[in-house]
Amino acid sequence: MLSKNKKLGVRGVVLIIIATGWICFILFFPLLVLVWEAFKHGIHAFLLPLLNPEAKHAIKLTIIITLSAVGINTLFGLPLAFLIGRYRTRMRALIDSLLNLPLAVSPVVAGLMFLLLFGREGIFRGILDKGGIEIVFRLPGMILATVFVSLPFVVREVVPVLEEVGWKQEESAWTLGAGWLRTFFRVTVPQIRWGLIYGMTLTTARAMGEFGAVMVVSGNIIGKTQTATLHINQALADFDYQSAYSCSFLIGFVSFFIILIVQKIYTRKKS
Amino acid sequence: MIKVQNLRKSFGNFPVIQDVSFIVEEGKLASVLGPSGSGKSTLLRLIAGLEMPDSGDIYFGDRRVNDIPVRKREIGFVFQDYALFGHMNVRDNIAFGLNVRGIRGKKALGRVRELLDLINMRDYENHYPHQLSGGQRQRVALARALAPSPKLLLLDEPFGSLDAKVRYNLGLWLRKFHREVGVTSIFVTHDQKEAMEISDKIILVNRGKVEQVGTPEEIYNKPATKFVASFIGRVNVLDGFVENGILICAGGGFSVNVTGDEDFEDGEAVLLLRPEDLNIGDEGDAKEGSGNKTFFKARIIEVRYLGDHYEVIVEINGIEIKGIVSKNVMESRKLIAGDETIVSFSKYIWFPAKEGLEKLKERLRNLGYIE
Questions:
Q1: Would you call B72 an interface residue with chain A, using a CB distance cutoff of 8 Å?
Q2: CA B176 to CA B239: how far, in whole Å?
Q3: Worst-scoring range by mean pLDDT, B37-51, B153-167, B341-355?
Q4: CB-CB contact of B48 with B188 (8 Å)
Q5: Contact, B140 vs B90, CB < 8 A?
Q6: Mutation site, B80, B85, B92, B94, interface A, largest A CB count within 10 A
Q7: What is the ipTM of this complex?
Q8: Where in chain B is the domain with CATH 2.40.50.100?
Q9: Which domain holds residue A168?
């Protein structure tokens, strides 16, 4: 297949050198340094900080929060995607703008928002006190904050798929005698499969790497409300560099792995 | 038999179908023909049950189906695009309607293969839609629609996205297919040639109303309205004025007798002349004198060879008219651009220009029938 791209000449080679050099400097090199620092003192030294109680707790929290965020955003995101992608509604513009909010707002601000809603002086204080529910400085608040910052991805990935085909396939299924349930599982779900998976993967990556919002809404309590990212931050503050590097490498590696999968899925989705 | 009575449908304030009624007899292939925006697709969707009419009735035989949901109407529907289930192969697509009715396994496979033979695609059983050409996809869509043996087949511009040659061949194939299978079918199209070629009956619609219902011959030779006359076939449109039973064209260029069977006062009118009804250069007739035919002196302006016939443009007293001349006739008469010749009309249609000449011409221009 002929590419539209031109053949490389001298100017092309120079361009390559500049581009590669830049990528190496800004991406590759820092990551290499991180890896080197993490393993500088050997595998045992690398693993040790990850086994202490705070680290283990932090990693566990990150896993719980990430899974929750993905689950919640998918559960609520799908119906929303359907509303936008398949039904005529004048609210479309409004919903689109609202969906972009989590990306535009600084995560720190997002965390603050939740503090205001559910905190000591918050609006919902009355209801929460009655029910004996605590949101901020605890897991629920951290989950909420993470849900907020990773909200748009599932919706944004599924909507175009739904829009592109429209109702035609479902209508075909109905004319062939299929009812609602069969049509949904055999016709609709397969259509959105890859878009949905891609959206969920992006949500995972974003949720895992969240820092600012979670820090504000959790109170950053050591051993209780510190996620992996907050734990790294704590380690730096305590000058415990090995701990910081080890945890960073762990998160970094998982993120990298996720991004790799995302790329593969993306190519699959496009075909 | 399908009967549609007084159907009305509006989307919001916009009336798309306005009091439409017609019948399609059992086993016939009927076309709903009309320009874009005439409401023809909506009409089909109403019959299918994909839309609900605001008022009016739809009968399949003597059963009123208004309240029956689409999946229970026992119809087959072929869409223009994105018809097939992209994530299923050809076999599973065709088997879908059978699976819904609990027919699976060997029995379903047998029926699927039967249909694959019918559409001549036996070797494509395991292919996926994205591996097929447009024509192949539509054939599979047809097989899929027919698998559960529907009582009515509905096709919504099924060949719309295909190129001309494929369209033509598929059209012929559909015609032959219908002869063999015999299920009552309604076919929606904007292509009048296609409708003429394959239908038993044409239902011409325009702006949500039925303009005429009839066989291709009736529609072509006895158009009920000027819309019908100008929509079907190529036609010369000439402004004129009727006075005392004579239609005078464009400032006296020439005139023809018009005997109105409607009460029409003298006024603006439109003369529609089909290119094949223009008789060019037949001097023999002129000398012998032949009854009612009027003859005009004309000058040949252009002669164009189009493969299976010639297109000849003549000018009568300043008015240009397009005509068609077959190869045989051209051979015997040898018409050359620049020559003087005699011209007569073997047939013509005229209509009072009720909506104004300019409006009619605007519409014809939009449809591409005149420049």
A1: yes
A2: 42
A3: B341-355
A4: no
A5: yes
A6: B85
A7: 0.76
A8: 229-367
A9: 42-270
Q: Tell me if B76 and A175 make a contact (CB, 8 A cut-off).
A: yes
pLDDT in tens, B44-94: 999 999 999 999 999 999 899 999 999 999 999 999 886 799 899 999 999
Asked if the structure places residue A242 within a domain, the reply is yes
Would you mind telling me the total number of residues written for chain A in this entry?
Answer: 271
Q: Which fold has domain B2-226?
A: Rossmann fold (3.40.50)
Give SS3 for B84.
coil
User: A174 at the B interface (CB within 8 A)?
Assistant: yes
* Per-residue pLDDT tens digits for A23-74: 889 988 888 898 998 998 989 999 999 999 999 999 999 999 999 999 999 9
Rounded Cα distance, A175 and A173, in Å: 6
Estimate to the nearest angstrom the gap between the alpha carbon of B293 and the chain centroid.
Answer: 31
The CATH number given to whatever domain includes residue A180 is 1.10.3720.10
Do residues A209 and A200 make contact, with C-beta atoms less than 8 angstroms apart?
A: no
Residue whose pair of structure tokens reads 């300043």 in the numeric block = B318
Predicted local distance difference test score (pLDDT) of residue B261: 52
Name the residue of chain B whose CA is nearest to A190's CA.
B87
Is residue A28 a part of any domain in this protein?
A: no
More confident call, B367 vs B151: B151
Angle (CA) B261-B365-B299 rounded to 5° is: 75
CATH domain B229-367 topology = OB fold (Dihydrolipoamide Acetyltransferase, E2P) (2.40.50)
Lowest mean pLDDT among A15-19, A107-111, A200-204, B193-197: B193-197
